[in-house]
Amino acid sequence: MSLRAKSKYVQPHKPAPNAGMTLYCSAEAVTCLWVRLVLAEKDVEGARFEIQRPGRISEDLLLLNPTQTLPTLADRDLVIYPARVIAEYLDERYPHPPMMPAEPAQRARLRMALDRLELDFFPTLRLVETATPAAAKAARKRLIDLIVSSAPLFPNRGWFLGLDHSLVDSAWTALFWRAAELKLELPPSADPVRRYAQRVFMRAPFQRVVPPR
């Protein structure tokens, strides 16, 4: 199955002045794509993106966040990381459209799904991207198995938790796009995932972040 900015360098003595919001991110990391998708869903105007390249971390980021965690969000005097904290902050900072369910039970389901993504899916994807060939091959199989096992969770219509697109939908979207980029081939038993991925890839916010090729 096929699922299918330059860094701005500044003087080293202080971060560049910025009255708005800046997201420091990598071009390909799934967590960075997740946060960019949340920003697109919120239609945040004026947000800047500072793409960090390996070995070329900007002076601003080094001063704002010495751990160099990506993504890192700078919103005026506030520096926020990691990705999940940024995503929840953006949902509270820009409440429309809401990306967290109103009902406590649905919020719990969302948080459990995000936990699973962060504990299992994202680390396995990272191994596919960065490990030695043998380890990457094993990680590819593991990621395919994880996706196949999750297929029954995806509805034929709507989004992961129902009719409203949520933070976990943006996280799944980022994962499935990176899986498509890495040419993961999924079996027919993953058809619910395929259909879901096709729907999220057609959303206007996604296409603003990842233009059609």
From TrEMBL:
SUPFAM superfamilies: GST C-terminal domain-like, Thioredoxin-like. It holds the Pfam family GST_N_3. Residues 19-98 form the GST N-terminal domain. InterPro entries: Glutathione-S-Trfase_C_sf (IPR036282), Glutathione_S-Trfase_N (IPR004045), GST_Omega/HSP26 (IPR050983), Thioredoxin-like_sf (IPR036249). One of its GO terms (cellular component) is cytoplasm. This is RNA polymerase-associated protein. It comes from Hydrocarboniphaga daqingensis.
